[in-house]
């Protein structure tokens, strides 16, 4: 079990960008109870991990989306990763705000992208997919062609997978929830009974623990 997904999962746990606490759940901003907490922005503070994320996202883009002409990051979590990827690939870059500014030019897409350009979107974390797909909608309205999205991590919620299908957006990630759980079990981070709890949570996270 030494895939890129499992290798990155271990790196995220090593720097505590991902924490698993099945017996002491976290409370997300949405109010959901969760046995996992993820903060991929912590990777920015670790040069080796930061470089790993940059290079592996670039590899995904080159392998899966070779027609890419520009890069767009989703604010705020993926602004830095997107910029690092665009710099490595030597491509134009912009980032997408959650909503247009209420002053100045009222921009939602910050930067300069050529109309009709084939754009890959960089995201750090996919949960329900709502904010990520709003960024896609903003880019399409701006006048570019979104050819797909790459992200550091996804929880793999069915609701997110369906939302991406409906939006016609292909998503490829460096790691995912399943890889984290498998890696955590292999290294003894979690016990066998906790693995079952983690699997149950993902089936219906909105009502789990209520």
Describe the protein's topology.
Layout: H1 4-14, E1 18-20, E2 26-27, E3 33-34, E4 36-38, H2 47-64, E5 70-74, H3 79-89, E6 93-96, E7 109-111, E8 118-126, H4 130-142, E9 145-154, H5 158-167, E10 171-176, H6 177-186, H7 192-203
Parallel strand pairs: 5-6, 5-8, 8-9, 9-10
Antiparallel strand pairs: 1-4, 2-3, 6-7
Helix pairs in contact: 1-6, 2-3, 6-7
Task: Characterise the protein shown here.
The chain is of the alpha/beta class. Helices cover about 40% and strands about 20% of the residues. It has seven helices and ten strands. The longest helix is centred in the first third of the chain and has 18 residues. The radius of gyration is 17 Å and the shape is globular. The mean pLDDT is about 95.
Question: Mind describing the biggest β-sheet?
Answer: 6 strands, mixed
Structural class: alpha/beta
Cα Rg? 17 Å
Q: How helix-rich are the residues, as a percent range?
A: 40-55%
Q: In terms of per-residue confidence, which ranges show pLDDT below 50 for 5 or more consecutive residues?
A: none
Number of strands: 10
Q: What spatial order of strands do you see in the largest sheet?
A: 7-6-5-8-9-10
Mean pLDDT: 93
Shape: globular
Distance between the termini: 34 Å
Strand coverage percent:
15-25%
Along the chain, the helix and strand elements come as: HEEEEHEHEEEHEHEHH
User: Helix tally?
Assistant: 7
């Amino acid at each position: 079990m030494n895939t890129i997904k499992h290798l990155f999962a271990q790196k995220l746990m090593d720097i505590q960008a991902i924490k698993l606490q099945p017996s002491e759940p976290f409370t997300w901003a949405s109010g959901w109870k969760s046995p996992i907490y993820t903060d991929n922005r912590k990777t920015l503070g670790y040069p080796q991990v930061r470089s790993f994320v940059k290079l592996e996202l670039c590899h995904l883009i080159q392998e899966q989306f070779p027609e890419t002409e520009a890069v767009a990051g989703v604010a705020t979590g993926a602004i830095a990763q997107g910029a690092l990827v665009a710099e490595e690939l030597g491509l134009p870059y912009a980032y997408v705000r959650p909503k247009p500014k209420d002053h100045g030019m009222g921009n939602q897409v910050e930067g300069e992208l050529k109309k009709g350009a084939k754009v890959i979107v960089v995201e750090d974390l996919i949960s329900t997919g709502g904010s990520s797909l709003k960024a896609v909608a903003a880019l399409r309205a701006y006048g570019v062609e979104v050819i797909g999205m790459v992200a550091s991590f996804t929880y793999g919620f069915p609701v997110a997978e369906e939302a991406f299908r409906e939006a016609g957006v292909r998503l490829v990630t460096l790691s995912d929830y399943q890889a984290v759980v498998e890696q955590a079990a292999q290294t003894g981070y979690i016990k066998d009974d906790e693995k079952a709890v983690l699997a149950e949570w993902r089936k219906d996270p909105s009502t789990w623990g209520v």
